[in-house]
Amino acid sequence: MVSRVSYLVALGALLAAPSLAFGDDDHLPKRVGECVMTRISELGSRLQGVSDSGNSVSYENGGYGVSYSTVKELQRSRVGDRVKLCLVSIPEDCPPGDDRGKEYKATNLRTKGTWTLPDASHMCGGA
């Protein structure tokens, strides 16, 4: 029999964990702390044809990440790898219609590697 204390501890742990939508690959997280499962659909360099320009990654749910430096964890990833993608920050005071600069933390479920990248090369209001 499970004790009431064990039940409450387990319930508290579930409630404290970031939300995770399993099997819902058609949207991006909308709130900080929200996570979704998706897959890597494309891996490349930040600038097409320039291998040392940083990394870019696209996800099946429409997400995108970009870095000016090489991300070793992305180098070990493959197209098709399952990823847990969590929204970690949203920029504030952006011009209307400019929603660039959200940051997402990704965890590759095959390699266990993680990376945190913005969804654009420039923050909202930038170039």
UniProtKB/TrEMBL annotation:
Highest taxon listed in the record's lineage: Bacteria
Cleavable signal peptide: 1-21
Keywords (A to Z) from UniProt: Signal
Protein name (record): Secreted protein
Source species of the chain: Labrys okinawensis
